[in-house]
């Protein structure tokens, strides 16, 4: 929490003014009953009418000043809380942008969303409300007690004697309520997740005729939520009247004994009246202190979770040197790579010259994606070196390195923006040759048919488009970047063979100097490459051109046989 409190530094002046406003308000709150006492004793009892107007004006002045202080205090607490929450969210979000893939591998989206959402808001609660009011409650209680003892110690003892009971009841209620809130919040998260999953997976639900089961699941969760809310209401119902009762009893006790002391002329009527007012300044802090403490402890636990994310040390250290990549030649030299403790890639040696195409083929899980991810340092290699332009990739800045590589990932992610904005995302935003790019990525035809063509907003994850259409747009995005290296990770799998052939041909034609790395499962997508790598269990088992690998009659040849069995049987050798 203390680390998070550092955010307040930026708002030192406002924090200072808000504390002054809070102290001013508390001071005036404590002064009020004293003026009432003077009014009763001096004006009504001793009949000093000359000070009546003065005292009334003071009371009006106190009222006005209290309103000003209250407004300033509320406004600034809220302002500071909101600003700090914004700063935390901004920092956390920017910080996460710098983290490597491993960080995201171990976290789920929901968890990270909670840090940026709920946890940052808990801190806002503490700053905008908890800390300020807790301090106010403590100051008010101590000052009011001191004044009561100053006025009459016997009555003061009677007044404070019930306070521990109120404090105990309030704390107990707060603890139970807080647990109940946690349960309700977990339950609400479950309802949200269920609703969200059901809506996103609606096609699957319908395909398996599972609607009834899903509705029952939802109703069940809703019922649990109702029960939890009722439990919370019962806790309120149990403790709240008890707290009220003890508060009112205190007042009655003070009135009885205070009345007796007044009759005995030990205290004045004004003092008795002041006592009744001061008692409320004892009771409200006792009643609310538990709630404020809870807000702060919740914020504390949120701050710890946020700090844990901020303390993450990215495994990939950026090199700030401003080294340019002139030539795109890539060399893998004895590269080893492991996730956790298991080597996924073993002793990889490769050389890809400028303008060449490298194709990677191999069974699922053989390490194809892992291999290409190493080039942009999404993960760090464990042994060996990767060179681009004869320079170890670790010597380039991450920005420079990644600026020179376009990735089309297996999972084609499109933002909820227009077709054009999605394509512009990767680099070139100004003189974008949209028509050409759409044409070359095989997207032109379907984009023209969209309601607003390239201005059409495509839904979350590109909903409303077919798998193949989404793939074409992600390829279009990479074409717009026109970088020295392009990586297509299974990026044409949803295209028919003819379109795949056209798109790959276009990519080849567009930039003759570009290195192309293509991961694919279809022989048709890899057969024209300058080199084909057959990867299995993280090892290069075969490497060569299509013809060399066919002649080798090894694993590549077997895949070829499986995929072209029918053609071969009909002796159509043109596919070779
Ligand atoms: N982030 C990760 N953390 C731990 N293990 C991983 C991670 N990503 C992949 N792996 C494991 O590494 C191995 C290689 O995965 P990789 O994705 O590179 O294979 P692939 O050949 O691209 O597979 P596919 O053809 O299915 O895309 C697999 O056994 C996989 O389970």
UniProtKB/TrEMBL annotation:
Q: Name one Pfam family in it.
A: ABC_tran
Location comes to: Cell membrane
Q: Which cellular component, as a GO term, is one annotated location?
A: plasma membrane
Record-annotated membrane-spanning stretches: 12-31, 51-71, 123-149, 155-171, 239-261, 267-284
- What keyword terms does UniProt attach to this protein? ATP-binding, Cell membrane, Membrane, Nucleotide-binding, Transmembrane, Transmembrane helix, Transport
State the annotated membrane topology for this chain: Multi-pass membrane protein
Q: Which InterPro entries match?
A: AAA+_ATPase, ABC1_TM_dom, ABC1_TM_sf, ABC_transporter-like_ATP-bd, ABC_transporter-like_CS, P-loop_NTPase, Type_1_exporter
PROSITE patterns reported for this sequence: ABC_TM1F, ABC_TRANSPORTER_1, ABC_TRANSPORTER_2
**UniProt key word Glycosyltransferase:** no
GO molecular function term, any single one: ABC-type oligopeptide transporter activity
The answer to whether UniProt assigns keyword DNA-binding to this entry is: no
Domain ABC transporter as annotated: residue spans: 330-562
ABC transmembrane type-1 domain location, by residue? 16-298
- Family matches, as SMART domains: AAA
Origin: domain of life: Bacteria
Q: What is this protein called?
A: ATP-binding cassette subfamily B protein
